Amino acid sequence: MLYNLVLVVHILLAVMIIALVLLQQGKGAEAGASFGGGGAATVFGASGSGNFMSRLTAIFTALFFVTSISLTIMAKPNARYTLQGSNAPASTSLPVTAPAPASSAQ
Q1: How far is Cα of residue 15 from the mean position of the Cα atoms in its chain?
Q2: Tens of pLDDT along 46-78?
Q3: Which of 10, 30, 32, 91 is the most exposed place for a label (fewest CB within 10 A)?
Q4: pTM over 0.70
Q5: Mutual orientation of helices 49-75 and 2-23 as an angle, nearest 10°?
Q6: For residues 9-22, b (16+ Cβ closer than 10 Å) or e, as one string?
Q7: Which residues contact 75 (CB under 8 A, 6 or more apart)?
Q8: How many angstroms separate the first and last alpha carbons of the chain?
Q9: Residues 56, 70: Cα–Cα separation, whole Å
Q10: Is residue 8 a contact partner of residue 62, using CB atoms and an 8 Å limit?
Q11: What is the 3-state secondary structure (H, E, C) of the chain?
């Protein structure tokens, strides 16, 4: 149950990071261009929206890394095989035998 909750939070964080990155403007763009004038500075403070969105992106990215590591730790006990193959089960297939020679009845 906890694994599923962390997975849902992880996916939501990924979507929010994508949205925030797409909403941010490049370094050369003016902050007022997307908000229709200089009134944007009063909404997000004196530094404008760029600083607010950058901080929010950094916070979401840090949380994304935490959920990534958490999912890895939670999934490890459930893993059946490792790369070394030390936990791989023995082969359950039947041994291959040579076919019996066909008798020629002529």
Answers
A1: 10
A2: 555 678 889 999 999 999 999 999 999 998 776
A3: 91
A4: no
A5: 150
A6: bbeebeebbeebee
A7: 3
A8: 70
A9: 21
A10: no
A11: CHHHHHHHHHHHHHHHHHHHHHHCCCCCCCHHHHHCCCCHHHHHCCCCHHHHHHHHHHHHHHHHHHHHHHHHHHHHHHCCCCCCCCCCCCCCCCCCCCCCCCCCCC
CB 9 within 8 A of CB 17: no
Rounded CA-CA distance 35/56 in Å is 19
Better-predicted residue by pLDDT, 69 or 104: 69
pLDDT at 24: 86
Structure tokens at 76: 């490890």
**Residue 19 CA to chain centroid, in angstroms?**
15
pLDDT digits (tens, 9 = 90+) for 6-60: 999 999 999 999 999 998 877 665 555 555 555 555 555 555 567 888 999 999 9
